[in-house]
Structures are given as C-alpha cells and as structure tokens.
Amino acid sequence: MAGEEKHAGSREWAGLAVLVLPCVLASMDMAVMFITLPSLAADLGPSGSEQLWIMDAYGFLLAGLLITMGTLGDRFGRRRVLLTGAAAFGAASVLAAYSTSPGTLIAARALLGIAGATLAPSTLSLVRSMFHDAGQRAAAVGIWTAGFAGGAVLGPIIGGLLLERFWWGSVFLINVPVMALLLLLGPLLLTEHRDPEPGRFDLLGAAMSLTAVLGVIYGVKAVAEHGFGWISLTCCAAGLAVGAAFLRRQHRSANPMIDMALFRTRRFNVPLLIDALATFGLVGFSLFNWQFMQLVLGMGPVESALWSLPTFLVMPVGIALATAIAPRVGKHNVIAAGLLVATAGYVMLALLQAGSGIVHLVSGMTVVSIGIGAVSAVVTEVIQSAAPPERAGAASATAETSAEFGGALGIALLGSIGTAVYRSELAANAPDALTPGQLEAARNTLGGAVETAATLPSGTAESLRHVAFEAFTREARIASVVSAVLMAGAATLVVAVLRSPGRGLGSGASRPAAELQRGDRVGDPRSQATSP
Q1: Residue 497, domain CATH
Q2: Helix 392-409 crosses helix 102-130 at what angle (to 10 degrees)?
Q3: Count of CB atoms within 10 A of residue 88's CB?
Q4: Helix-strand-coil percent breakdown of the chain, rounded to 5?
Q5: Pair (184, 245) in one structural domain
Q6: Which helix (H) or strand (E) is 530 found in, with range?
Q7: Does 224 lie in the same domain as 79?
Q8: Hey, how many other C-beta atoms are within 10 angstroms of the C-beta on 323?
Q9: In terms of residue numbers, what domain contains 226?
Q10: Is the domain of 306 the same as that of 403?
Q11: DSSP class of residue 6?
Q12: Structurally, how many domains does the chain consist of?
C-alpha cells in the first residue's frame, strides 16, 4: 500500500546487533593507541617519527578511503564489502599484535585503516536498507551511533585492563573473535543490498578522493603538532585543490561517486556541517580532557579511563531521548536543543580551574556528551534519509568523512590555539631558576613541564608545576569557549535555515536527490535486495 513502509522483524534487529560490533571495534582501534603507545614503544623502540606514524596510519587510511569503500559497497554489495573488510581487519589485527618492528606495526596499522574504511559506511548503509520504517530506522541509527561513540570510550578502558595482565599486542587480538563472529552471523542475518544500476567505477575519482582527504588531514595534523609551516600549508593547499578537482569531476560524471545534487539541498548539507562541528568540539577538547586527568590530577591511565565512564553511560540517554521525541517536536528542534545542551556543558568546562576536582571536569563532559549524543543520532539519520537507498553507502561515507574532518580540525585548531596560549603563559610566569633548556622543555608541552619539575628542587618544582597547570587550564578554558560559541552558532543555524516549511527535516522518509531539488514531494526509490 502506498505510503506504508515494511516493519523490521527479529531478524533485522538481530542483524543490527551484529552490525554494531564492528563499529565498536573500529572506533576502539583509534582510541586504544593513546594508552597502548608507551608499552609498545618500550618494546619496539620506535623513533619519534615512527611513533607518529603508528598513531596516524590507521586514521589517515580510514578517512581517505571512506568514500571509495562506500561507493564499492553500493556497487558490489554492502554485505560483501563488509564481510571482506571484516576478514581483512581480523588478519591485520593478528599482524599488528605480533609485529616485531616499528615498520611492521606501521604497515599493519595502515592495513587496519584500509579494512576499517569498509566497516562504517557498510554498516550504516545496511542499517538504512534493513529498516524502512522511519521510526524504526531512527532507533536503529541511534543504536549504531551509540556503538560507534561507545567504542571510543571503551577503547582506553579495555586497553588499560588488558595491559595490566598481558602484553601490548593483546589490544589488537581482541578484534579477532569479534570479526570471526561477524563472518559467521553476517551471511545468516544480513540481506545483501546494492545499487541496481551502479555504472562504471571511477578509479581516477577514487584516487583523487584519497589524495584530497589524506593531503588535508595530514596538513591539519602537522599544524597541530608543529604549528603553521610550509609543509603543513602545502599539504592542505594541495589536498584542497585536488578535492576541488574531484568535486568538479563528480559534477560532470555520468556515474559519480558522490551525488552532487544532494549538496544542493539544505536537508543534506546543513546536517553534514552540523555533524562536523559537533565532532570538532568533542574530539578537539579530548586533547585537554585526558591530559587534565593524568597530568594535572595525577591519575593513572586506567583510573582516568574509568572516570570517563559517565561520559559513555549518559550518551545513550541523549540518543534515546532524541530518537523518542524527534517525531513529535521536529528533528530540527531536537538538533538545536542538543547543540544548546552541549553549549551548556562547554560553558561549565570554561569555568575549570587548576584546582578543580574531577567532578567538575566529568560533569561538564557528561553534559556535553548528552547533547552531542542527541545531535549525532538525529543528524546521522537525517543524512541517511536524504539520500536515495541505492546511494546509501556513498552518503554514509560522506557523513563519516565529514566527521573525520571535523575531528582533525578540532585537534589542529584548538590544539594550536591552546599551545600558543600555554607557551606564552609559561614563558611569562616560569620560575627564574630554570635554565634555558629546562624552560624550553617546559614550554613545549605540559608533559614536558611535569618531567622537568621532577628533576628540580622541591620549591622550584612546585612553582613550575603551579605555573604549568594554570597555563594549561587556561588553554582548556579557551578551547571550551571556542567550542561553546560554535555549538551556539550551529544551533542558531539549524533554527534559521531548517525551520521554515519546505526546508525542514520532515519525518525522515527518504527522497531521491532530483526530487529534493524540485521540492518536498516524497519519492519511493527502491534498492535491489536479494536473499542471502
């Protein structure tokens, strides 16, 4: 019957549980390295440059290949690409666990990034294909969002617990049984979906998208680590130039990897921007969050990870509330409210002092997480609903790439602003007894100041720690203010742009891009689905 949507049954919900597993692991694998690096560095002895590549190889390849892998899923089948990526992810995890040199581990991390790029767009596009009812799809996307966000929090906790009893390779081996379970249950619970008329695969376009994303993200990370320089600026400029050429190619192509018509509707491009801004603040402030707990408050990795649990536990609350009330009050209202809640959390963090306890920090981050959870769940579902089902993989990949850019920019810009503030404050207020070498080490990072203080007489050491903690807390406050302003501005944008009739986010029914350009008529495109 026209206008009705097929309701998902027990098989689809069981399939969703299977799809959440690789999402948790993909985000865990990014977060777990922060706590694992000291152990593997002591064992493998990587240089400073090799340590950076061990950390970054995964994220670089993941971000650079999301669009390509999403398109491959639309073309060859999302279940097939997901299961192929799961097998590769498991194999690369074994290689990483038993690496005997930094070079081998870097290669394994790169392979994990390539395989990981298949997971997010494939799982999210399969969710879009499995749940046709708008309400059920919104709930399913909320569960998917909670799994992806939860992995980032669980990574350091599980990693810390494993490192207390096993060697560093154990944090990679936990991926293997989960991927084996996905390979076993996936063919039984997941139905294959693909674009019935995919056209030719654009190999040159895939190479251009990879080059553009890698160039910009590498340049942004270089700015965060070393400040503005000709290498970082050249990489950013080259990436942007290739990205512009890629978009022109997609606009002219008969079989584009990205449907450029989607970007001409506010229903798609505004939520995409909101997703990037939400990730910008959340990931950017994480630079200060972990350092405050471990260096200012003196917590160990496991203790600090456990204190982050409230942040994880409340995020499903925000997701559930947003999913439940969005159909009643309007998705744009829920997104705006979530952004304002996040704004309130950042305002709380803007009042942080060096003498503040852990409760102040965790309370602020908890409020932020509730708001961002609500925003992410609704925005992700809106982006998925805006794309026709046969392009769900490419739409998912575009959303994930936007979030990656937001996170990278958050680290780079907030990190760069914070570093400048910290260095200026410490240089102006450092104890006179410091030698030039000690002052330079203390100015570089908060960790450098703490290590330098450990070598000084007690009086000078206490004075240096006090100055460093005050300087660091001030940079955290500035980052909080920037994030609060961005969230408030984003909320205003949502209300101003998406509130009026014809521009709203509607009920979530999917519409082809061509119809989005013509108006608000709801289409009924169908993707090809075959039994397993």
Answers
A1: 1.20.1250.20
A2: 130
A3: 17
A4: 80, 0, 20
A5: no
A6: strand 528-530
A7: no
A8: 23
A9: 203-256
A10: yes
A11: P
A12: 3
Residue 210 class from Cβ within 10 Å (0-12 exposed, 13-18 middle, 19+ buried)?
A: buried
Closest CA to 277 of 104, 158, 414, 460: 414
Which residues are within 8 A (CB) of 40 and not within 5 positions of it... i.e. 6 or more apart? 46, 54, 105, 168
Tokens 């907030």 found at: 414
Give 382's contacts (C-beta < 8 A, 6+ positions apart): 267, 271, 331, 335, 505, 508
Give the pair of three-digit tokens for residue 495. Answer: 């209300």
In angstroms, rounded to a whole number, what is the distance separating the alpha carbons of residues 231 and 298? 36
State the DSSP code for 194.
E
**Coil vs helix vs strand at 528:** strand
Q: Which helix (H) or strand (E) holds 192?
A: strand 192-194
Indicate whether 466 belongs to any domain.
no
- pTM of the full structure: 0.71
Residue 440 lies in a domain: no
Which residue type sits at 119?
L
The distance of Cα 481 from the centroid of its chain, to the nearest Å, equals 21
C-alpha 366/C-alpha 392 separation (Å) is 32
Query: What does 412-467 look like in DSSP terms, one character per residue?
Result: IIIHHHHHHHHHHHHHHHS-TT--HHHHHHHHH-HHHHHHHHTTS-HHHHHHHHHH
Q: Is 93 helix (H, G, I), strand (E, B) or coil?
A: helix
Phi, psi (rounded to 5 degrees) for 421: -65, -45
Helix (H) or strand (E) holding 193: strand 192-194
Residue 412 · residue 221 · CB < 8 Å = yes
* pLDDT tens-place values along the chain, 532 residues long: 444 456 767 777 888 888 888 877 777 776 677 667 767 777 887 765 576 677 777 877 777 777 778 777 777 788 888 889 889 999 999 999 999 888 899 899 889 988 888 887 777 777 777 777 767 777 777 777 777 766 766 777 777 778 778 888 888 888 898 889 888 888 888 777 666 666 677 778 778 878 887 788 777 777 766 667 788 788 888 888 988 888 888 777 766 766 676 677 777 778 888 888 888 888 777 778 777 887 888 887 677 777 877 877 787 778 778 878 888 888 888 889 999 999 999 999 999 888 888 999 999 989 998 888 888 878 877 777 766 665 655 666 677 777 777 776 777 677 777 777 888 888 888 888 888 888 888 887 787 788 888 888 888 888 988 888 988 888 889 989 999 999 999 899 888 876 654 445 544 434 444 433 333 333 333 333 433 4
Judge whether 458 lies within some domain.
Answer: no
H helix or E strand, kind and range, residue 76: helix 48-76
Tell me which amino acid residue 475 is: E
CA torsion 194-195-199-203 (nearest 10°) is -50
